[in-house]
Amino acid sequence: MTLQQLQYALALQRYKSFRIAAQKMNLSQPGLSLQIGKLEKEIGLLLFDRSKSPINPTPEGSKFLAKAHEIIVSTDELQEFASNMSDTLSGKISLGIIPTLAPFLVPLFADSFQQIHSDIALDINEMTTDLVVKGVLNGDLDAGIISTPIQAFGLLSQPLFYEKFYFYKSGDVENNKISLSSIDYSKLWLLNEGNCFRDQINNFCDLSEIRKNKKFIYRSNSIDALIRIVDVKGGMTILPELTTLSLNEHQEENICQIDSKNPKAREIGLITRTRNNKENMLNELCSHIKGNIPKQMLSSDGLDVVDPNIQKE
CA 98 to CA 222: how far, in whole Å? Predict the structure, then answer.
């Protein structure tokens, strides 16, 4: 039994197809089948049910592959631990970032970070909060940048910065501030249900009837799309602060503050596994991100930080 054979078996479990798994592993399909066959013969277990499509593990195979995944992750961690002891930062950071943040945050740090740390490769994935958390927990991701805090066994989080919420309104803005009680929900455009950002807004807005009696419903997962729909169809939406930095001069005139005692905001943090062997690289990444964020966004002083209510067992 070799680590390579375990990786082949895990690839087949993930892609559920010999053809796709072989392509991903840069191996011929017969070669992949041969290696998995050798592994099954050596351990005396049938790992996959080949009689059905897509291919899935047998009950015994699922248990074996769960242990194999632990071994592969531990091996990778050992390699990273050794490289992390060096004074030279090098390696790869696989990072998941939520969609309401990635298009606006990544351009602020990615290029300059790699100019300074040319030996560190960044693999950035735009993913929903659930997929980021899952990816960090199972080792597919080294870290994630999401709205925090988060309560999840096996995860650590550290705050990076804080984004205030703003209204984005079409037409002439008579007042620089809009109270939550004066919102016309029939004209409010928001992200689709299940999005963490929308869930946070629901903590301070009553969204129970937002789509009631609407003749045009737009189920979007993109903040850019919401900005465009407000520009074209009218109405208003709610934006996080980094988004406002990318607006053009005309669009900036449509920004309004939320009228409340303390501005509503969300905390953005970096999550990692409790056992993390890329600590030095990730600390450097965190420092670089903070250094490229407007200074006023680094503190939560005077802000009403909205809890995203993320809890994972």
Answer: 11
